[in-house]
Amino acid sequence: MSETTSETPIVDLLASMTADSLDASSLDEQALMLVRLAALVASGAPSASYALNLAAAGEAGLDAEDVRGVLAAIAPIVGTSRVVAATGRIVLALGVAIEVIAEELEDEA
């Protein structure tokens, strides 16, 4: 078993897996992130998964309208309850991200 010197080995692994999926897919980065978002909703993913993937989606140039579009597109397939639950988890993930940014700004001030 190899040792790691990283302070964030799990986050590093997830980032590596995401990069590998980009390389393996024929989809462009934005389309891949939209599909991943749909898969998160369909699988009932936790807020932390949304936080990681929404950050990557933002870096790929996606915005809140894109997220709403995915939720509307998949609602008839996955059901209202999954979309409502996902929306709550997305709001929670964004709230945590905002708190982290606010604390970082306070620390810098």
Can you give me a brief rundown of this structure?
The chain contains five helices and no strands.
CA-CA gap between termini: 42 Å
The shape, in one word, is: globular
Estimate percent helicity.
over 70%
> Which class of secondary structure composition applies to the elements?
mainly alpha
Question: Would you give an account of this structure?
Answer:
With 109 residues, the protein is an all-alpha fold. The chain has one domain (25-108). The protein is 81% helix and 0% strand. Helix 2 packs antiparallel against helix 3 and helix 2 (29-43) packs across helix 4. It is globular, with a radius of gyration of 15 Å. The N and C termini lie far apart (42 Å).
Please describe the topology of this protein:
Elements: H1 9-24, H2 29-43, H3 47-59, H4 64-78, H5 80-108
Helix pairs in contact: 2-3, 2-4, 3-5, 4-5
Main attributes of the structure:
mainly alpha; single chain; 5 helices; globular; 109 residues
